[in-house]
Amino acid sequence: MAATAQVLAEPGAAVAAAAVPVTARVVLLRAASDSAWEEAVAGFDGVCQEQLLTFARTRWPGLRHEPVLFEYGGQLIGGCLVMIQPLPLGVGAIAVVKWGPMLADAGRPDALALYGGMVEALVEEFARQRRLMVSILPHAAIGGNNDEFAQLLQRGFRPGARLRYPERYIVNLRLSDEEQRRSFEQKWRYHLNKSEKAGLSFEHGDSERLPEFDALYELMVDRKRFPDHSAYETVPALMALSDDRLRPELFFVRHDGEIIAGAIIFKAGNRAVYLYGATSDRALPLRAGYFLHWHIIRWLRDNTRADWYDLGGTDGFQGLHQFKKGMVGSAGVIRPVPPVGNYAAYPLPFLLGEGAFAAREFLKSVGHVLDRLRADRASPDQRRHRGSPAGAP
């Protein structure tokens, strides 16, 4: 199976808003095998854990997973993992792409045109030929405008559901130690200075030390009473990946011989991602979280090609907002994840898809209300984002 789509520029050409379509084509091809897929995308700038089959098959076992690659001028330029979500009663399905399509080289001058070409190839294959709704969720943009979401709107995608707390906190990794410390907010820097006088030590651990992190994580979830909607069940499979480019990294902080804090970091691509963190009761007064992240930032800068460190969101907790905002500082960015973009080429798939998403959002809202009513759960205390779903959120 192959689908083609026009893009707006020749390879390597700069893209202008008024660029004229030419005959260059993006070609959509299926990955030959699971291993071939993950080997192909391991070096992509846009790779993330959600685009790995190892992650997706554990996280979303009820979906069909179809990894596709894109070529342009005989060169591999990107790919995405398409998940086919069946609708109730077998009335249809939705083709879901989360954090994709991925670019192999996000720094190309024609990167945005190639992104548009990949989207067009997805529309041709899944919306036109297979008559499905296509649902794409782009990343939060580093720049002020989310050009990928704007591309979706220009192509006819409609804004769909938005995350309840969409802001993502992103640290600039390409700074010297002095520049990075100067970037931190004053209060964050104060706590870091205190932590460095507390007798803490930083450790980089291998995957065999995962049980140490598991124990710390379970204790923290019980103590903080956060509702855990994460994908922690995927961690063992990710840590067992043979490709060290894709395998997450483990970090620990120790005090008086005892591990009191830890983190799991996805390091591939040009945007490293904070996946999970855990602390013990002793960590807070020792400010171990500040010490841990300071050394993770330095390790990522010195040992990976990532330019940015994505700390994720807050799930609505003001304390997390303050901590992450202080770490992002003046050199990093806080950007919202845009709404999902939905597209269907025919009326029936659109109506079925919109109905399914509306039902899912209703059930999620009920779940959030129930979480708030539970006495054994901490409740979000951060004001929700009310920004516009435009191309420049």
Low-confidence stretches: 1-24, 387-393
What proportion strand?
Answer: 15-25%
- Kindly state the percentage of residues in helix: 25-40%
Radius of gyration: 21 Å
Shape: globular
Please state the average pLDDT score. Answer: 86
- According to DSSP, the number of beta strands is 16
Q: How would a crystallographer describe the biggest sheet?
A: 9 strands, mixed
Number of helices: 12
Give the ordered list of helices and strands. EEHHEEEEHEHEEHHEHHEEEHHEHEEH
Structural class designation: alpha+beta
Cα(first) to Cα(last) distance is 36 Å
- The oligomeric state is single chain
What does it look like?
The chain has 12 helices and 16 strands. The protein has 393 residues and is an alpha+beta fold. The strands form 2 sheets. Strands 1, 2, 3, 4, 5, 6, 7, 8 and 16 form a 9-stranded mixed sheet that branches. The protein has a 7-stranded mixed sheet with strand order 10-11-12-13-14-9-15. The longest helix is centred in the last third of the chain and has 27 residues. The two termini are 36 Å apart. The N terminus and C terminus are likely disordered.
